[in-house]
């Protein structure tokens, strides 16, 4: 007797992520892959060496669920060093399997079915599936224009008696927006007025351009007790495959998130946590050089895309550049998905179609755009620039 296996409704509508599809297509056509935000170079040698040392020092069993004490202390020192925050590592820090798990555990631990969580679109692709699996309703607020600003009235109207939390991703993926202090203050006032929790995704906190500062929402008046700040080792230190992230906040928030975390992954790889202590303790010169290096990479791609005929949106942070493609593609290309496939097959460069970062009714807002990642070796960016230059000569 055959058994018909039926996929659960909570995941049946997700499909394959666009990142997987683009990666497969890029490999098939030998394209320069500027799609996924994963560096094609390794992290600092001393950080890699610290992981190897930990493996060879018999640090290979389960870590405490909250995270190793030394790592939580290092995360707390990092928050004080860069933002002046006073964090108790014993009860205000949780180590997670990357920022992705931290966001999922936060949604599970801090909201109930029927609650609403506000997100800004274009929205990073894991947030909304997390909400759907938790029975939570996403409430969208749209970022618009070349500066990716939101309408204060639209944001205010999104808050209602069902609102449990708001997710603020700054620096922002996919747009490269860095929320200003004025924008964060508006968000803070609304959170306090409506008794709403802020979940901040700050994984690109050290990837900033043109001297633009990163302001953690938790540092604004009245927000320390209602903000859960999430970050990760992967983006800053080019070790995205390690999946070492963290959440910091008031003890009550961290405890709620840990209630979910303990039954998702329970603990994060011990030797990689040990290496995080080394990473977070690197000298200021590392962080200064990181910003200078990425500034150069961003500027190389801004120039290449501009010369190729793209309408470029200048990012202020993150790994990414958004660009309008209508001026470079042939007439038969009708939307961003077709453009991404055409660019891979005909030009040999991969990008991500941003319509996937919008809710179904607003996908047209990303139809004329493409997202390019700059977190690549100089020779990778050079190869992409050379291929894109053919568009400017067409």
Q: Order of helices and strands, N to C? A: HHEHHEHEHEHEHEEHEHHHEEHEEH
Major sheet: arrangement of strands: 2-8-7-6-5-3-4
Shape: globular
Instruction: Give the helix tally.
Output: 14
Mean pLDDT: 96
Give the proportion of residues in helices.
40-55%
Beta-strand content: 5-15%
- The protein's oligomeric status is single chain
Low-confidence segments, ≥5 residues, pLDDT <50? none
Compute the separation of the termini in Å: 61 Å
Structural class: alpha/beta
The main β sheet shows up as:
7 strands, mixed
If you compute it from the alpha carbons, what radius of gyration comes out, rounded to the nearest whole angstrom?
21 Å
Tell me how many strands there are.
12
